[in-house]
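Encode chain A's predicted structure.
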Amino acid sequence: MTDDTPVLGRRALNRALLARQLLLERHAMAPLDAIEHLVGMQSQAPNPPYIGLWSRLADFDFGDVGELMTARRALRIVLMRGTLHLVSARDARALRPLTQPIRDNHLKSRAADLDGVDLDAVVAEARRLLADEPRTDKELRTLLAERWPDGDTALLGWAVRLRLPLVQVPPRGIWGASGMARHTTLDTWLDDDAPPDLSLDDLVLRYLRAFGPASVQDVQQWSGLTRLGEVVERLTPGLVAFQDENGRTLYDLPGAPRPDPDSPAPVRFVPDFDNLLLSHADRARIVTEEHRRRIFTINGIIRATFLVDGFVHGMWKIEKKRGEAVLRLDPFVPVPRPDRTALEEEGLRLLAAAHPEAKTHRVEFTPA
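Encoded structure for chain A:
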């Protein structure tokens, strides 16, 4: 980098991220298009993507995603960072091979435990069983134990999940529905179309479109892949470069939105596990380190947050009982009166959209 490389401060990066993440304004975009633009939505729990889309899209209907999943145009599958994501069917086919090295590395970590196991035979049998009908993890382990009675079926089931692209099928993942997590193979769930031609270069460009400007470390944090420096280096002639306030080099697409740092940012509710908070090595553009430690729990839960002036300002949760839906907000610092009013209004809209069956809706703040 040269001395005249533009520097992007925290607010500039914040507004750029919010614009890419469809959070500066609600967009008149079809849910499937939004899911693809965001390169999937982390779906470690079934409901968060619905809240995430509601906060990003105009006139979002909570039934839309369920219809996409039932029609097999969207699905839940393990991809980036080895975590469950809601993606389009097209992206599931394209992204799964690119992210397979993450799962291969997990397998290598247990190579000694798998020594002597004919893993190819185990995977082939699991593929047959899951193609026959969707099964829970317990059901699959029980069936594998019939053929390998002396095997560690928990270990075998774990290895199968890493080797096979498994879809978590509906009704699991549909808003308001219940059901055990059952899986089948991606090839069984979808038609036998060839996967779209997507390279690592394409993946990095799509990441920048949804999360940039960003460093090599940022894209590796989001994807779970390593050694992407050479990919970015290959792409550099077609990118623009910046620095952050700590001197780190950031890359971006030339025509991508980078709004004025003083652009207004409306209050927004961000769901648990949202990639907004998970997709950069340096998260200062959206949350302070002090607040991040309160959001990221030791057992892997990423709590739902709300944004004020574009930055994480606190956590929220919805509680339902006796016909009432209550949105409880836990601010990290005092909320100014205008923002408090905006959060109350936005919160009531969220409750009406997510829980229209509740007789009453209420927003409560805990003392900061």
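The longest strand covers residues 311-321.
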